Amino acid sequence: MSAFVDIAGLKVTIPTPQGPLTPVRGLDLQVVKGETLAIVGESGCGKSLTALALIGLVPPPCRVSAERLSFDGQSLLGLGAAAWRTLRGPRIAMIFQDPMTSLDPCYTIGSQLVEVMRTHRRISETAARQRAIDLLTRVGVPSPAARLGQYPHQLSGGLRQRVMIAMALSCEPDLIIADEPTTALDVTTQAQVLGLLAQLQDETGVAIILITHDLGVVASVAHRMAVMYAGQVVETGPTAAVLARPSHPYTEGLLRAIPTPGLTARGAPLGTIPGIVPPPTAATDGCLFLARCPYARPACAAGPIPLAPLAPGHAQRCIRPLAERAGEPGYAALVGADG
Ligand SMILES: Nc1ncnc2c1ncn2[C@@H]1O[C@H](COP(=O)(O)OP(=O)(O)OP(=O)(O)O)[C@@H](O)[C@H]1O
Ligand SMILES: [Mg+2]
Fold first, then answer.
1. pTM for this structure?
2. Neighbours of 241 (CB within 10 A)
3. Domain residue ranges of the chain, discontinuous segments joined by +
4. Could you confirm whether domain 5-91+173-338 is CATH 3.20.20.80?
5. Which is it for strands 92-95 and 175-179: parallel, antiparallel or unpaired?
6. How far apart are CA 286 and CA 231, in angstroms?
7. Neighbours of ion ligand 2 (CB under 5 A)
8. Nearest residue CA, atom 16 of ligand 1?
9. 91: Cβ–Cβ under 8 A, 6 or more apart, which residues?
10. Is 59 near ligand 1, meaning CB less than 6 Å away?
11. pLDDT (tens digit per residue) in 74-116
């Protein structure tokens, strides 16, 4: 049985006068129905472009290609505008980091919610308004009937984000892609919004792809996680397993660099990952983390390096664990010297 969301070899290419850039270069990812998958990775590694590819909103002149890019058994490659309209909203919804980029400042909350519902469903204006009130109540917006007449600028950031979630839920999607939905919010509101998404998932079984920089958030809400580096997934697995036993050197570095409640000892120094991410023009042969990797050795330059299984559901893109498993002495010595 194929995964609910099944991505293999996804590439996003941007033509430029200096030659093509490939910010997403061979991304593999699966999402199961009803789960929350978190995507983490440093700024510019292609998280948002991946999300946009899944909802058909990669901006021109960027080009999307893939071996597989499918949702609920349907290929999303080469879909026309009409086909996207039947998916975007009713089946796949997106929550953006900044609600002001998706809410129209010129229209009231009510008219925007009603319009989304009436675009996708046969529903009367009155019924849509009632449903808008129900949805706002459900996402914890106080005085929902009065809010319908307000404009986005009259709401706080937390309330606007709740309105975005209500809008995403309004057509009962099967997949919500939330791209840093809480980054602009204070910690208390952030916890409320994430709690709300988890509760809605329990009630409706919606699958959620959550893009975030916050490993504390990942640890608390995601069933599985994918770590992206330079446009590829370098490690993926059950959240608890990846956080407890990171296998890829980038994941290891990332966990050392970010204080994570319950994982980082109080007072322990935080690590850094020396070097920079290779530009999206760099050749994809060999490991993309090579120049920054403390375990690097010549074999790492002979690519491409596949995402290889470590344990059930846990895979990573580094030759070290496989070489270790094969009893190669060079790697054992390197690992020993590090620890
Ligand atoms: N429309 C575009 N035109 C040119 N380059 C783009 C465009 N959109 C994204 N990029 C580039 O592609 C790369 C990946 O961008 P993306 O927005 O997916 O990163 P991200 O992982 O979401 O980063 P962040 O964590 O900062 O949101 C970046 O280097 C970005 O500058
Ligand atoms: Mg982004």
1. 0.90
2. 18
3. 5-91+173-338, 92-172
4. no
5. parallel
6. 14
7. 47-48
8. 46
9. 71, 72, 171, 173, 174, 175
10. yes
11. 999 999 999 999 999 889 999 987 777 778 999 999 999 999 9
